[in-house]
Structure formats: C-alpha cells, structure tokens
C-alpha cells in the first residue's frame, strides 16, 4: 500500500480540485512538496480539503517554501504574551492573539471542564467567571484577560468541599448528561453575586433596587439562567437548585443534602 504513494502524480485530480488549485495565488511558490501533498491527499480522497488547508495556511502564514510536510505554527505568526490568574494560579502564556479564552483553557491549560458546545455564544456551555462576572469564554479573547482573574468549574469547589451550588445541583438532580453543567454552575455562582448587588435583569420590575440585595423569583432565576441551554431539559431542577441556595430554604420539598458524600437531613441552611 505504501509504495502506491511513491509517485503521487499517478493520481489524477478531479476537475473541482484542479479548479481550486488554479485559484491559489502564485502556485509556483507553493513548492513541489505541497503539490505532492495535494496529489497524495487527492489519492486518499482528501483532495479538496487538502487544497483548502493549503489555501488557509497561505492566508495565515504567508507563502513559504517548506521542504517536507510541515505546518507552520500559526501561533508564532501572531504571538502575544498574556498573564492572568486561573483558579488562583498565575499563568503566563504565549498564544495566538486570536485564541479564545475557551481554547486557551482547554487546549493550552488542559482545563477541559469548560465545554465547547456551539463556539458561537449561543449555548452557555463555555461560561466561566472573569473578575467576578460570568462571560462566554468562546466569545472572549485570551488577550482580553491580561491581568484578570479567571475562575472555571475546576476552581469552584474549595478542596474537597463542594460549592453550595454544586451540592444543590447534586441534590436536585440538576443535570442528566452533564455537558451543560459546568457552564450552568459557573453562571449560577456569578448569579448569586448579581442578586446580592441588586443587578436588574430583563424581568426585574423595580430597577431602582440596584445596589441592594434582591430576592429572586423563579421567573428571575429562569431569565438569568436563560443563556445556559440544557439539551437534557433539566431546567426545573436547575431552578430548584439555584433557588434553594439563593433563599437558604428547601426547594421543591427536598429536605436533605450531601455532606461529605453522604445524604443528610437538612433544613437547607448551608
Ligand atoms: S460554546 Fe460558548 S456559548 Fe456555546
Ligand atoms: S445535562 Fe445534558 S445538556 Fe444539560
């Protein structure tokens, strides 16, 4: 099988692939190895995708003669040094100026708790807390976080002690598959502070409450959590969990909680 690729030009490009190839500017500068790569990729049924890859690489990295199949690390072309705290620990990264906070957390720091659901600011699965405010990390550039403090789901608990919101999610079954849960929890934790600071939402009747702690109704909680989608439909239980921590009273008639991994009767005062 390997020798089939010794002479990559024995494979014919399709008409579409030839047209794409002709569209590439200054083809002669792409280099012999590139043409071999494209022909090889074509033989493997990857022709159009490979040509697009080369075109994108040219766009980002500029035309370069590369002897072997070697991708130019894009980060080196747009490098920016960023220092910020993640879960209380100082981090210094050199990364592409276009890298999102979500990608930096997941791909560079190995913090995969924050999920990439839509990557378009629509689902809330990537929610983290930056300087006390919840943000969508897929819409936040890492470079914007210079000098800031980022809290991800990995930094919500204190050692083995769950945050009250985490404990309440367990207690009320606020999840099913769990994919949306890190974002839901980060959102709910930041929401508590928003309520304490009297920050109005779209459904707040009296916006003069700003600066004073406010009691959130179910409608308020639903509205404030509406940026976090749950495909499993755990919404009623999520609202119950948030409400219980917010009010300090048992919600939905569930009068127990997890303490040290064990179920205990409770009056819901955490
Ligand atoms: S991944 Fe960020 S909002 Fe969906
Ligand atoms: S628990 Fe599955 S998406 Fe929310």
Order of helix and strand elements from N to C terminus? HHHHEEHEEEHHHHEE
Percent range of helical residues? 25-40%
**Strand order of the biggest β-sheet:** 2-1-5-3-4
Mean pLDDT: 80
Biggest beta-sheet profile: 5 strands, mixed
> Any ligands, ions or cofactors bound here, and which?
FE2/S2 (inorganic) cluster
Structural class designation = alpha+beta
Strand content: 5-15%
Give the CA-based shape. Answer: elongated
The tally of beta strands, per DSSP, is 7
Q: Ends: how far apart?
A: 65 Å
Point out poorly predicted stretches: 1-9, 26-30, 58-72
CA-atom Rg in angstroms? 25 Å
Give the count of helical stretches. 9
Task: Give me the secondary-structure topology.
Elements: H1 15-23, H2 32-43, H3 47-61, H4 74-77, E1 79-86, E2 89-96, H5 101-108, E3 127-130, E4 133-136, E5 149-151, H6 164-171, H7 181-196, H8 218-224, H9 235-247, E6 256-259, E7 262-265
Parallel strand pairs: 1-5
Antiparallel strand pairs: 1-2, 3-4, 3-5, 6-7
Helix pairs in contact: 1-3, 2-3, 6-9
For this entry, give a set of tags.
5-stranded mixed β-sheet, two-stranded antiparallel sheet, 13% strand, disordered N terminus, elongated, 270 residues, 7 strands, alpha+beta, binds FE2/S2 (inorganic) cluster
Give structural notes.
The protein is α+β, with helices and mostly antiparallel strands. Helices cover 34% and strands 13% of the residues. The protein has nine helices and seven strands; from the N terminus they run ααααββαβββααααββ. A five-stranded mixed β-sheet has the order 2-1-5-3-4, sandwiched between helices. A two-stranded antiparallel ribbon has the order 6-7. A hairpin with a 2-residue loop joins strand 3 and strand 4 (133-136). Helix 1 (15-23) runs parallel beside helix 3 and helix 6 (164-171) packs across helix 9 (235-247). It is elongated. The protein starts with 14 loop residues before the first helix and ends in a 5-residue tail after the last strand. It binds FE2/S2 (inorganic) cluster (2 copies).
């Amino acid at each position: 099988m390997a020798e089939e690729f010794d002479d990559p030009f024995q494979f014919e490009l399709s008409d579409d692939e030839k047209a794409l190839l002709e569209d590439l500017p200054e083809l002669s500068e792409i280099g012999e190895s590139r043409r071999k790569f494209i022909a090889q990729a074509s033989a493997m049924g990857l022709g159009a995708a490979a040509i697009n890859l080369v075109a994108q690489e040219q766009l980002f990295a500029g035309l370069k003669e590369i002897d072997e199949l070697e991708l130019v690390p894009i980060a080196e072309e747009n490098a920016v040094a960023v220092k910020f705290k993640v879960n209380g620990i100082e981090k210094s990264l050199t990364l592409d100026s276009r890298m999102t906070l979500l990608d930096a957390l997941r791909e560079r720091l190995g913090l995969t708790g924050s999920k990439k659901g839509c990557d378009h600011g629509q689902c809330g699965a990537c929610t983290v807390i930056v300087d006390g405010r919840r943000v969508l990390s897929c819409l936040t550039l890492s470079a914007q976080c210079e000098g800031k403090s980022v809290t991800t789901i990995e930094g919500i608990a204190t050692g083995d002690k769950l945050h009250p919101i985490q404990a309440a999610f367990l207690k009320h079954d606020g999840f099913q598959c769990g994919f949306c849960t890190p974002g839901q929890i980060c959102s709910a934790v930041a929401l508590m502070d928003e309520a304490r600071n009297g920050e109005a939402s779209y459904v707040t009747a009296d916006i003069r409450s700003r600066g004073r702690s406010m009691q959130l109704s179910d409608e308020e909680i639903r509205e404030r959590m509406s940026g976090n989608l749950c495909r499993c439909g755990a919404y009623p239980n999520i609202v119950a969990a948030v409400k219980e921590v917010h009010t300090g009273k048992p919600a939905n008639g569930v009068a127990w909680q997890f303490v040290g991994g064990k179920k205990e009767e409770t009056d819901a005062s955490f």
